[in-house]
## 1
Amino acid sequence: MKKFDSFLTVCIMLVFAHGKAQDTADTLKPRLLQGISLKQDSIFEVNIHFRIQSRFGYASENMQQLMPGNFDLGIRRARLFFDGHIYSKKWTYFLQLNFSRIDLNEDNTGSNHILRDAMIWYEAWKGMKIGLGQGKLPGNRQRMISSGMLEFTDRSIANNAYNLDRDAGLFATQHIKIGKVDVNLKTALTTGEGRNAGISNKGLSTTGRIEIMPFGKFTGNNDMMEADIEGEQKPKLSLAAVAHYNDFASKSLGQTGRILPTPRYLHAYMADLLFKFNGFAISSEYLFRGANNVFMDANKQGYYIAGRGLNTQMSFCFENYTCVALRYAVTQPDSLLATFIPQQKQYALCITKFISNHQLKVQAEIQFLEDAFRKNGVLLNQAIRQYMAGFLQIELGI
């Protein structure tokens, strides 16, 4: 770890030293909250960015006793990332490293995963890109959206339970325009083992996502960020569907989670929508994961997490760049897991003050949550846990 930190420090120092030594050929342009860009003619460009999320969180024991059950105080995310092109603008790259403790062991495997993304992209023709490396799978929209572009302090319980996360392999995207309708096709053929897995087993994972925008493209990147801070002047809508298959999956959540000794065949289906107009935004997504056999063995000592989830959000951004957002989310595990995993409900209200877009913002959120063991809608016991959580978070990045 120390060797890696020293190597990273030397690399950054060399990049800045190179830019200073060749002022005649290169341009080093500090752009406020947009990273630092280093160029050499048109054959090389590197953009350096970082972002930090600092959080103070609290969760109560229950709704009767609002005394703290636990605190969440610290750095939720700390990331350094690079993008740009080499040789020509057809060859682009994206590299992202993470350093906060929760990011390093996000999949609960006990391994420190410093490398988050490492993708090389080639633009084969206009609208068509092919990539090789490690990155986000084209799954549900909220997981594809950067955690720095959210209208809440974090993603929903439905996303956390059933998203696809990242994987390594071959990726492709294609943009098509049919009349006034824009269509994005996104596919991936990957190991199915998740981040930094090394050599894969004999199974592979396939993922496909289609996005249809009947009213045309959103302004800029507004379909890949929550809240309508762009203030769409015309109604914009995106409808999407996802199909995912993971053969010989060895982790309880597919690409993440506990490693289990008996591989399974997992499949997932998802659908989402996003609508934005004049500061108003509404998004909703449905997620489903199934398995050919959820249990690791007959003794039910381990299991693959199957089930479904729903998340719906609504927000409005005022002219002073203050946004108010509401969320309702629910998860329902497979009926075979009803005695192992509780059904969950989440209600949330978040107020965000955008100081400079999503790069500098302050968020205050309150949540009401419920955990209960139910099967086919029937309560299995009387132990329903209801509790409250609150968060104050600052996001800063360039």
Note: Residues 1-32 have pLDDT under 50 and may be disordered.
## 2
Amino acid sequence: MHSEYILPSPELLANFPEELHRLLTNCGDSSKKHPITLPLGAAPQSPPYTLSFALKISAAATDKTATALHLCLLSLLCRYSPEELQLLLFAPFDSPLQQYHKLPHLLCPISQTTTPLYWVINEAKHRCTLLDTQGAKSIIDYNAAAAPAVKLSPIIAVIDAHHKNGVNSMLRDQLEQLTALNDCCERSGIHIIIYTDNHQISHVEQALQAGTSTVRPACHMQDIPLPTFTEQVISTIVQHCATQAKQNFASPEPEQPELSAQDTELFERCVEFAAAEGKVSTAVLQRKFSIGYGRAAKMMDFLTTRGIIDSDNRYIQP
């Protein structure tokens, strides 16, 4: 922990509504950092939710999923310093996640695309290699024997898949790769929280189930009573954290798959086509170039990550 980092105090939380105060602090023994728990119990006596590989938060109403998301994040901020927990946030400009852009827990600035998830995939593989080399079953075992300078902090990637194009082909591919590594992710302290709605949740479920059959069902919010959040509650905790430590964006540049010679030629044709048409889609590329869905989706991913098209698949004028 940072030597001078102070977690939000009971006095700071005392001014919050009673129910909110209870939920933020009712995650068991605050000195016990593992496993990571979240206050998503449906009743005051309900035990905290233990975070495994992935948590999918959904509800019919946008405000309810946003409330659950805030509850999860603020609860974590009340219990973990930046050295005890690191965050990656993926969200568009209008996402409620943008309210957390000052957090010292962030590994990199909030990203509008999920490209940095490729780094998470590689980090999961790297961590598992470290654990296997040391004969450690989990991140807890590894850290117990590791020197302070090489201890591993848990990483939580929070993805806003609530917006219109929330579950695109790139995110589906990334979720499938991560889910195939779900045992590795759990062992090495890497977790995913996906914030979505009842319309998008089926796409998220399909991507996660493609990699494994062991991921738990989505956590639907309809039957869980949640407190009301105000901007002041969020800003109070975020501002406190921001005053305790500076941001230190330590993650490497996101790694992107390279284009083969054959795909490079096709990609160049796709760029020309996008510039001429103004807007493209996977289906349009399939028809235009007589290619399969997988290859067309791959081209869409490259067009997005290389800044050729925006989140609405519209061509960006250079």
Note: The first strand starts at residue 37 and ends at 38.
## 3
Amino acid sequence: MEITDEAADNRRSAPRPTLRSFNLSPIIKMIRLNSYFCRALLPAILIPANNLFAFAQYRDPRYAPPAEDSIFTSVWFYAVLLIAAGAAALIFKIRRASASFDHPEQAPDGLRLSYKERPAQKPVISERLQAAAATPQPVKKGFTNLPVASFVRVQRSNPYAQLHESNDPTLLKAIDESNVEIEDDASVRMQALKLLSGFRTSNSVAAIAQMALYDLSSKLRSDAVLQLAAIDHESVFETIVTCCADPTREVRASAARALSKLTFDRAEAWTRIVESGALARMRHAARAAVEGALVRRYFDRLVHKDRKIAYEAFALTVLLVRSGETEQVFSALAENRDEDVKLAILHVIQCLREERTAEWLDELLTRHNLSPSIASKVNEMRLQFQMHPV
């Protein structure tokens, strides 16, 4: 169809359609552009769509073809297209957000984190409660909770089986050869000691004890003490204690080792010396324990948590008090750094209730500088003995 000049002039004079832009704010508000994906995808869709929409509205009358009805010239087509694109972007965003919550390396807004999030920790309060429930209650400390505080007296010792005496000719010959007054040769006495160690009899033990105490050779005395420990009978105890005060260091060391190797009850051995009632015997054993540095170690064992060890120290302290060898006792009360040890020693004195106890306590206060707690305990004991004399 030819376009006449009049028709062309009418089209030129017709008002040009204005450029209308589509209002996208409701869709943008609906999608809530928060993710990186939507910010990159939606402009790429919206800008060309908007341009197409504007181009569809604008037609140059000089080149415009005849008006025809088409779906692409409809405004609603582009509106539906934009709504579908926005809905797809919104669905993608929701799925991406849900996936980011399942994986710790993704943040809720879809951005990758530059660090790893820490795993969820258990509540602190529940952990503390569980720890408090699982932790045992602390043991009460103090002198009254120690085993020594429950001792009120030394228990009566049990009798032990005595060794028999032997008249074996070989044994009798070895006994004679072990005597330093009969045999001067140390090598012969050494051979006799080896023979005596093969017999477990009362006369063989007595001969070995004589060598441990009086032989001129320190080597023989040391070996004899160890042989007594190998016999391991209650009758060798006092000899080993006496050897702890030997003038030779070698013998003292052997006696200390021998004392620790004994398997019978040493507390009963100390008690038997006290039960004998022989003052000379008690003083001899007490002085040997002092000179052999046994007393200081035993004072520390008074506060031991093992009842057997504490009772052995209790028995030795009773021996010191009963024999009158109290110098080490008073020194420990004045100089020992452990208050529980001092209280344990005072507890032993209080249990014994000797006739000289009040005199000892007065001497203790006047001659020694005691700590306030120990001085208070001593005054309490003095008042007790004044009210209830022995």
Note: Residues 18-102 form one domain.
